[in-house]
Amino acid sequence: MYNLVDLLSQAESDTETIGCNGQNYTGWLALGTKITFDHISFEIKIVNTHKGGDYYKEISLQEYNHFKEYGWKIGVFDLSLWNSQSKVEKAAVSLKTLPKNKKNEKAILELIKHLEVLTDRFSEILKRKNRYITNLKTAKQ
Q1: What are the tens digits of pLDDT across the range 81-107?
Q2: Exposure of 29 by Cβ count < 10 A (0-12 exposed, 13-18 middle, 19+ buried)?
Q3: Taking all residues of the chain, what is their mean pLDDT, rounded to a whole number?
Q4: How many CB atoms lie within 10 A of CB 133?
Q5: Can you tell me the distance from the alpha carbon of 128 to that of 31, in angstroms, rounded to the nearest whole number?
Q6: What is the value of pTM for the model shown?
Q7: Which DSSP symbol is given to 104?
Q8: What pLDDT, in 10s, does the model give residues 22-42?
Q9: Distance between CA 119 and CA 70 in Å, rounded?
């Protein structure tokens, strides 16, 4: 099990994480997941930049527990996969509910293209996660 300080340290040392500092905070961002350390309150937060609109939404308690169990890198991969899966499901529902007629033909083709892009992104993240896990296992041997 990891604590939030461990996760912050892992994010800082992750070569695929981008530093994003602001006024009174230090942060790191990877695949739409941002972890921040507030210099005033000393609070560490993880937010999902794919949810919340203008203000990013803090991850759920269940998601925090997932990060604490598996660490920063696996947590980032899994949160990104969950976001991608959610987007695919929303696009699929839109495609199913859109009336199939000549008027909507262009919108249907755009949705199909969008679904292809989303599924390709999902596959790429899954491959990266699997490579990371394979490298971890190889390094431990």
Answers
A1: 999 888 888 888 887 887 777 777 888
A2: middle
A3: 90
A4: 13
A5: 11
A6: 0.81
A7: G
A8: 999 999 999 999 999 999 999
A9: 24
Q: Cα(42)–Cα(39) distance, rounded to whole angstroms? A: 5
Give the CA count within 13 Å in the CB-facing half-sphere of 127: 6
Domain locations in the chain as residue ranges:
4-71, 73-140
Q: Tokens representing 127?
A: 């491959």
Distance, in Å, from the CA atom of 137 to the CA atom of 132, rounded to the nearest integer, reads 9
Name the DSSP class of 22: B
pLDDT, average across residues 54-61: 90
Contact 48, 55 (CB under 8 A): no
Q: What's the rounded Cα separation, in Å, for the pair 40 and 18?
A: 22
Whose structure tokens read 């699929």?
A: 92
